[in-house]
Amino acid sequence: MSGTIDDVLVVGGGDVGLLTALGIRKQLPTVDVRVVDDFGTEVPQVGKSTYLDIQNILHGQLEIEEPEFIDEVKPIWKATVFFRDWCDTDAFHYPFDVSDTFKQPDTRNSSEHFVYYYDNLYDSEDHQTRCEQIVSQGKSPWYHDQNGDLSKYNKCAYHLNTARFNGYLRKLCRQRGVELVDDEITDVETTGSHVDAVHSASDSYDADLFVDATGFNRILRREQEAAEFRDFEFPLDAAFNVRIDRSLDDVIPATVVETGDFGWFWHIDTYDNRDLGYVFASEYVDDEAALEEFREYVEAVSTADADPNPVGDLEDVDRYEFTSGYYERAWVDNCLAIGNAEGFVEPLQSTALTANASLAMQFANLLSAHGRIADDDVRLAYNRAVERTWESIYDFIAVHYKYSYADTDLWREMATREYSPRLDRIAEEFDRFGYDWQVERANEDGLQELSIFTVPDFYAMMRPLGASSVFYDTNDFRVSNELVRELEQYYRRIRTQVHSQHLTVSELYQDVLNG
Ligand SMILES: Cc1cc2nc3c(=O)[nH]c(=O)nc-3n(C[C@H](O)[C@H](O)[C@H](O)COP(=O)(O)OP(=O)(O)OC[C@H]3O[C@@H](n4cnc5c(N)ncnc54)[C@H](O)[C@@H]3O)c2cc1C
User: Fold this and answer.
1) Average pLDDT over residues 320-338
2) Per-domain residue ranges of the chain
3) Cα 214 to averaged position of ligand 1 atoms, centre (Å)
4) In the chain, how long is the greatest CA-to-CA distance?
5) What separation in Å is there between the alpha carbon of 433 and the centre of ligand 1?
6) Does the beta carbon of 347 sit less than 6 angstroms from any atom of ligand 1?
7) List of E strands, 235-339
8) Rounded to the nearest 5°, which phi and psi values hold at 335?
9) Which residue, judged by its Cα, is nearest atom 52 of ligand 1?
10) Could you report the per-residue pLDDT of 292-319, keeping only the tens digit for each?
11) Of 443, 414, 411, 449, whose CA–CA distance to 428 is shortest?
12) 107 touches 113 (CB < 8 A)
């Protein structure tokens, strides 16, 4: 089926639905875009942590002015994912400036550099990238440069208060000509996989293209025939979530994660509070026992400003359920699913919002490049991009479990299960060759390359989690004194720079921006 798209109806005005509408508006200004949502219902509270690409999507592709965004959304900057205690390993960071750790192979001394990292630096608090120093010193990426001007180190993502962010996106939609319709869709009319119309109690809506952005409700997608779901079968499938009070002085500019007996905890500081969660495997633990573990965790990370008993009973905490996996064809006939409606991989590494925002932009670009014509090849191209995105996320999340071990049924199961052939390939090649940028990732599915996470991203997780390489363990590879001296100076300079030039979040908002 092919046809020219003149109008789009996005069902669901969560963050992803609104970003999709904004992306279409930006790239296809002649296309009419409406978003239907029962806007009166509360915005879901999860979805606060992002990764690096969010900066480019919001401020580059969507041309959202950064000062206005900071003023209205009040983000907190995230420089790393901080593994404070992951199955009893020493604390370590996954920083957004991984490239500063793993030099390009053609850089002078790159091999020595890797060996030194393998042997010494990966668990050293004295050899941190700028992102890692920002977290260790409790700073923001904003600093005063030599001329006294306010500048930003660009390798940081955001923590967002979802209510502020969603409110801002709604305002932006109105300003940019996206129509927001306050209504709840109750019925979807289809012929096979073709969506004919959607209906609310009082109205009917049709369009050339429908976008299902209804989150886990998946109200259009469920009605489409021929939509196959690829289940990743990660056992983590539920989460508790509470928010506690916290002063801006106590902000940690990282998403902090720690393991529990049946999953892992998150700790995300936003402008307004500290957001805490426990993602667990309901097959291995009942809600009461998981809540007890969560309660202990929350007490441990509580601040002087917090309510002394924030977790309370089961009825008092938000509880989420999810399945990890995605619909193999995101765009079927005249309906495209995006966001949680299309897929979700458990929230370790906080991939959902940013990955979907990126896909929304790719969709708008693709349609724009093809003169608004939707045909099977355009759909295929988009669906391949979606597939690569989810598979890349799956591989990267799996690496966190492949090398983890704790003495409970869940963690034993996670350490021994089979993940993807792509991940096995990276692990095998690290063992045989050490750090190598050239790992061939083609597999039987014909996925020539993964998106989002590159091989160095995997290395940044593998060594701190305990992976070892026969190549380094058996060969007498020497690191020169010259390189060691050079690195000592380099890391000292970064530490001093962050210490003397960077502002804390509190200094930035209260002294510089007077917020
Ligand atoms: C436990 C957990 C933790 C997470 N943490 C993160 C994180 O740290 N970072 C991250 O990027 N992502 C995270 N996510 C994913 C996060 O949920 C999404 O990134 C984000 O909320 C955007 O989702 P969405 O817009 O697709 O769906 P939603 O936010 O659920 O929005 C769906 C919208 O559809 C509307 N809707 C539904 N049904 C109808 C209907 N019938 N008619 C009209 N409107 C309808 C709803 O009102 C809602 O506004 C997490 C998810 C979970 C479950």
Assistant:
1) 96
2) 3-48+161-229+324-374
3) 7
4) 76
5) 42
6) yes
7) 238-244, 254-259, 263-269, 274-280, 318-321, 325-327, 331-332, 335-337
8) -140, 130
9) 46
10) 999 999 999 887 777 777 777 888 899 9
11) 443
12) yes
Question: pTM for the full model?
Answer: 0.95
- State the pLDDT at residue 59: 98
pLDDT in tens, 402-439: 999 898 999 999 989 999 888 888 898 899 988 877 66
User: Is 253 close to ligand 1, i.e. is its CB under 6 Å away?
Assistant: no
- For residues 232 and 392, the answer to whether their CB atoms sit within 8 Å is no
Mutate to test the pocket of ligand 1, among 9, 10, 16 (most ligand atoms within 8 A of CB): 16
- CA–CA distance, 296 with 258 (Å, rounded to integer): 13
pLDDT for 439: 63
Whole-number pLDDT of residue 440: 59
Q: What is the DSSP string of 94-162?
A: EETTGGGTS--TTSTTHHHHHHHHHHTGGG-TTS--HHHHHHHTT--SEEE-TTS-EEE-S--EEE--H
Q: How many C-beta atoms lie closer than 10 Å to residue 223's C-beta?
A: 17
Atom of ligand 1 nearest to the CA of 322: 53
Mutate to test the pocket of ligand 1, among 34, 37, 43, 166 (most ligand atoms within 8 A of CB): 37
pLDDT of residue 65: 96
Q: Does domain 3-48+161-229+324-374 have CATH number 3.50.50.60?
A: yes
Type of residue at 224: Q
Query: How many CB atoms lie under 10 A from the CB of residue 268?
Result: 24
Q: Indicate if ligand 1 lies below 6 Å from the C-beta of 339.
A: yes
- Going by the DSSP 8-state scheme, the letter that residue 356 receives in this structure is H
User: How many Å lie between the centroid of ligand 1 and the Cα of residue 232?
Assistant: 19
**Atom of ligand 1 at shortest distance to CA of 351?**
11
Separation CA 192–CA 169 (nearest Å)? 34
- Please report, for residues 102, 124, 365, 478, the alpha-carbon distance to residue 118 in angstroms, rounded to integers and kept in the order given: 11, 11, 41, 12
